[in-house]
Amino acid sequence: MTTPLTLSFGSDHGGLALRRDLIAALKAKGHTIIDRGTETSASCDYPDYAQAVGADVASGRARFGILVCTTGIGISIAANKVEGIRAALVQSADAAEMSRRHNDANVLCFGAKYVDLPTALASVEVFLSAPFEGGRHTCRVDKIEPKS
Prior knowledge:
With 148 residues, this protein is of the alpha/beta class. Helices cover 45% and strands 16% of the residues. A five-stranded parallel beta sheet has the order 2-1-3-5-4, sandwiched between helices.
């Protein structure tokens, strides 16, 4: 198991069930959760949750973020608009691991339509434990970050 971390979670209505299930599983493993919602299945706007989770990660309130919408596409695009966020949309544990190792991703995104709970949980576990490899990947990640 990874060392317990503070994780920020968010989803729109399409990701509500998967988000809740992931939160329950990760709380049981000792992680501290910041839950940014949504709390109902009523239609809502995924950018609101992506921005809230992105702000938690960018500010350091949370080490990593996890976002879920129906496809994962919209919420990952929205999260990547937050300065300092490198959000990765994944559908496998291998992709989640590589997003950390090569891209230093700090927000993991899922599409509830395409990823079941066991796959999402396995992906989160490897994401939380995989280190950024640095080296040749550092200059690539640096090119992603906005220039001030």
